[in-house]
Amino acid sequence: MDRRTTPRPTTVELLAQAPLLSGLSSRELGGVSALTTRLELPTGRELTRQGSLGREFVVLFGGEVGVVKDDRPIGTLGAGEVFGEIALLQDRPRTATVVSTTAVSVGVIARPDFAILVQDHPTVAEELQAKMAGHLARDEARSA
Question: Which SS3 state, helix, strand or coil, does residue 47 take?
Fold first, then answer.
């Protein structure tokens, strides 16, 4: 019996599937890949905790996570989505807790490397600012 396996996608290929990064060239994606640590995590793993110091930015390559704010579920994120930008862009505590609801594959970019990402890729920085503004506006609307 021939057991062929599908080759595991490279980090560059996975980053290219994230809408936030899809406009980058292959060369640019290679640079972002060099800043990224790829992890496979089990169901139930806490990836961020509301109120804690933000030390990383996360690109969700596969699986699903739940987002909880003030002990209330507020959303679900899937492959291609990102989180953690607010704490890093505004140098403030995490605004929500994120927990894997399935096994997940993620790309983690540490704070110093995130600074390189936004400095070297202004269009990504602009999109992150817009994403952050949207998240904060939704948070404000929920609190009202």
Answer: strand
Distance CA 3, CA 57 (A): 36
Residue 134 CB-density burial (10 A; 0-12 exposed, 13-18 middle, 19+ buried): exposed
What is the model's pTM? 0.89
What separation in angstroms does the CA of 123 have from each of 73, 129, 137, 141? 31, 10, 21, 27
The CATH number assigned to the domain holding 122 equals: 2.60.120.10
Residue-wise pLDDT for 6-63, tens only, equals: 788 999 999 999 998 988 999 999 999 999 999 999 999 999 999 999 999 999 999 9
Give the residue among 106, 105, 113, 88 at the shortest CA–CA distance from 32: 113
Q: Is residue 3 part of a domain?
A: no
